[in-house]
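Re: folding output
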Amino acid sequence: MVSQDVTSIDLVVVGPTASGKTVWATEWALKNNAEVVSADSRQIYRRLEIGTAKPSRDILNAVPHHLIDILNPDQSYSAGTFCREARTAILDVKSRGKKVVLVGGTGLYIRSLLFGILELPDEDLLLKKSFFDLWGSKTAEELHEELTRRDPDRAKSLSVSDRYRVMRSLWLSEWMGIPPTKLFASRSLKGVPFNRIVGLDPGRHALCERIDKRVVSMMQRGWCEEVQQLLANGCAPEDPAFRSLGYPEVLDCLKGKRGLEDTIAIVQRKTRQFAKRQMTWFRHMTPVEWIGNSTSV
């Protein structure tokens, strides 16, 4: 998918947590006069350093990074906002004659930026609940028949058994008042052209070892103290930033709900599970060129 478009991304680096994306992308950027656009939904938060595995100050000083440290812990973010801000960052880098490397493990952000996203206003949650209460008990056949009545073109593109997408399409039709097919055509933010996607896969055993060691290292470097400082500075446990992987468990540890060793074990397990989900996501994202990250850049 090679493009000479001024907004094109020269390289995309994906992979599970602890696969070595940051180092790999930094080395590529240094060799290719590039800057990094981060696609990490947790590294956007200021003051969350250790638990989000944010690039070191040396790396940030060596290569300019965009979309890191852009929000306070109590602020929310979305894939749509990411796409708009990433486009702005890409244009900025390209305007200075430099290349762009997009790197991160947030699959939704990356897929939305590369392949497009449907931009919608904030949902009416009460209306949505009422709709799903009403239609949730219908059979798959009944749902598909209703979608055929409302939007024949959309219904033809979906299997009767694809209950989730059929229900989503019906909800969009109800909420926005127009058939989903027309909605997609009028409100879609098109994807950004890219030249190459590299996926880092160190192998399951090696990845699990890295994850386990990294969680221990994070604790040794002061992850608990980082969270204590955030709370002391006014952050609340319900802030969006504290939904980041591992932070709820550290909060529980600080509250005395479990000891440090048990906390480490739980965070290790949840991180391994998260990495597995990331790999599943990226395996379905074509065309990714999978390599072991020991391979030279």
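--- second protein (sequence, then structure) ---
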Amino acid sequence: MLEVSHLDVTYGRTRAVKSVSLTVAAGEVVAVLGANGAGKTSLLRALQGAVRPSGGKIRFDGKDMTNQSSAARVRSGMVLVPEGRQIFVSMSVHENLQMGAYLRSDADIARDIEAIYERFPNLAERRHMSAKTLSGGEQQMLAIGRALVSRPRLIMLDEPSLGLSPLFVERLFDLLAELNSDDIAILLVEQNTSMALDVASRGYVLELGSVLLEDTAAALSSNTALTEAYLGGGQDTDQEGSEHERAPAR
């Protein structure tokens, strides 16, 4: 489905991504791991079209997307849930979900938004409230819900568990498994390495913008030296709102 070949991303004189090649098959979950500054976010931004690569190719379903706009990539079925959620806090929950359909003109948008409310009852209860009133975990669910309204076949997530309470982290990874069971492929950048490798089938480890290692999730999980040297403890959470998060809705 997704084929990335020798991708380079450069900011001025800084080469943030260096000849990275990776693949994601249809219905697969692939983790991208590495320390801070490894180039993970720059990679996702290039894949979504937020930055233009300085070299390499991006193909999706056999089509060259390297120089296509972000909108063209969303239309093709690629969507990014960015780090920090980046919801529209001045808008209501419902308006945020409608923004996920800004490239659609079919008659099923309302039905798809109702499906999001069925999946996330907390959002349904707050559909007319400002998005800024949501807890951190609910805002992350809103960001994922907005992405789902675009009807993606590949969701790319950048540090989705960052700043969430342990309860919401567990719910988040349950949700990723649910989405994958619906045949949505997932490319996951995540510093909670143990949970990322639990849900993924394969993983790539980046170091200073380059692919250090590619292997199955099981092999990466069992590589103690690699985990200690490059992946840390895998529990990078600042517990934002951990004492105040509402219980996640199923």
